[in-house]
Amino acid sequence: MERRIPTLADLRATLNFRAPGNPAAARLGLAQTIWDLRAIAKARTPKGPFDYTDGAAEGEIGIARARQAFEDVELHPAVLKDVTDVSTSWDVLGAPSAFPLAIAPTGFTRLMHAEGEPAGARAAAAYGIPFTLSTLGTTSIERVREVSPEGRLWMQLYMMKERDRSLELVERAAQAGYDTLMITVDTPVAGARHRDARNGMQFPPQLTLSTLVDAAPKVEWWWNFLTTEPVTFAAISKWDGTVGELLDAMFDPSVDYEALAEVRAAWPGKLVVKGVQSVADARTLADLGVDAITLSNHGGRQLDRAPVPFRLLPEVAREVGDDLEIHLDTGIMSGTDIVAAVALGARTTMVGRAYLYGLMAGGRAGVNRALAILTGEVQRTMRLLGVSSLEELGPQHVTQLDRLVPRAD
């Protein structure tokens, strides 16, 4: 091997020193997956809010199984297809959605980052997808509409023990131009979220000796939290206690089909029931005439080891897919997951943690990055499958591989 001294031209072509730019943009730009955003979020967010987002109920088996189910698929591409142009849009609940994706309702969102729900609503509008405000959101119904005047907004409802307060939210959402109401039905009581209990997760957050130690490298979060407007809820004026105590005080174990009918009568728009976990319940709700159901086990945050929604999807689609829309929630961490769900019968999908990881990683810019990752993966996966539109996707493109198979007696 002969050696030589590099010339100045050689060095000029090889060295690539650039002037430092925006460090936040550079950090987010390096994130190639939602898992990368999660790592950034964990490094920049205090333990309490991060664990509230990241954690699940009891042993957290349900969320692990949900994510594993998306990994346990085999995709079947067709070759020699013209995929120069790929259409990712279609109607969801009677209105266009640029992607089969919506931002799920998330509680305590401004605890994850001070920009909170406005960051999510603005980003969703920019990407042409719906944004869902939670009853436990930390921005008012009216404020979210104000920051996203042209965005498509959905309102999630918990039926509270004080029923009049729930119906008041329904009226406010209708007046603010929200087009869809999503009633969550899997919360008769709060799940046992052990991370929150161990962290002493409270609202509002408390500066204790342990939180001060944890906050030391996360100064930006605390600065944002302390120098912006105090956190308030979309649905309640104030609360002083633990998150678990708040949930138990709000959730109503008496909610039944009569309560659903009461909400249906009060709401003029589309109605979605979220938290469906069986074919039988899906059939009953279809017969009752709701507009859509969301297969969801609450991100594994309620009943641990509940059915995995993605595993349930094909059977539900065969039973009720012609009668109403099926939406899918829980465990989605990539655009490939979204494509697989659509192929097996979902009209749209919902992301909660994936969006919050972006929010914690960088506010509005982080949410933009999360949506850019997911939508880019949707487009790339469709092209690699040889599919140019969502309508072309079907069960022939996805095989669910068996891992959790009921034992034959």
Compact overview of the structure:
The chain is 45% helix and 13% strand. It contains 18 helices and 14 strands.
Structural write-up:
The chain has 409 residues and is of the alpha/beta class. It has helices at 8-14, 23-29, 34-44, 47-54, 61-71, 109-112, 116-127, 141-147, 163-175, 194-199, 209-215, 219-227, 243-250, 257-266, 279-288, 309-320, 335-343, 353-385; strands spanning 73-75, 90-92, 95-97, 101-103, 131-133, 153-157, 180-184, 202-203, 241-242, 270-276, 292-295, 325-329, 348-351, 398-400. The strands form 4 sheets. The chain has an 8-stranded parallel β-sheet with strand order 4-13-12-11-10-7-6-5. It has a two-stranded antiparallel ribbon with strand order 1-14. The protein has a two-stranded antiparallel sheet with strand order 2-3. α7 (116-127) runs parallel beside α18, α15 packs across α16 (309-320) and α17 (335-343) crosses α18. The longest helix has 33 residues, at 353-385.
